[in-house]
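Dig into what follows:

_____
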Amino acid sequence: MVEQPCSECAGLGEVEREQSLTVKIPAGAEDDMVLRVAGRGSPSREPRDVPGDLLVVVRAAPDSRFERAGADLWRVERVPVADAVLGTSLESPTIDGAVTVSVPAGTQPDAVLRLRGKGLPEFGGKRRGDLHVPIHVQVPTRLGADERRLCEELQALPRKGKRQKP
């Protein structure tokens, strides 16, 4: 029995204090991953025993530009129908900055272009994931007179593999 307990610890022999700690989050760490920091947890109840481990749960902030799937990133790009037919180039963000993406002529709706190595670092590995770019083709809902005329001319052209109307 402690006759004159300490005012700070009330005779328990320990004082609770808040302490800042810097924890290095490894590259590629995913949401809900648990990191262990040895010896920085709660003290043991046994005298002369080492403190327990501190468990840190990683919470990754969302990025409105991408969706994450492991080390791979996904980003939808929209292109007008004429650009899908004729081909185009567009600027797309990556985690390292914008890159030029070449959309080949004849790109079909929902085709997925893959940019190798433009994703996130792989956790515990040396490679990087890929950036996948699904192409959504925008079909116009309202046409002007000139646009309608051009579409009708295109429609009237003979197509390979299709029988023409008599």
The first strand starts at residue 34 and ends at 37. Residues 145-156 form the longest helix (12 residues). The CA atoms of residues 91 and 110 lie 18 Å apart. The chain has a mean pLDDT of 89.
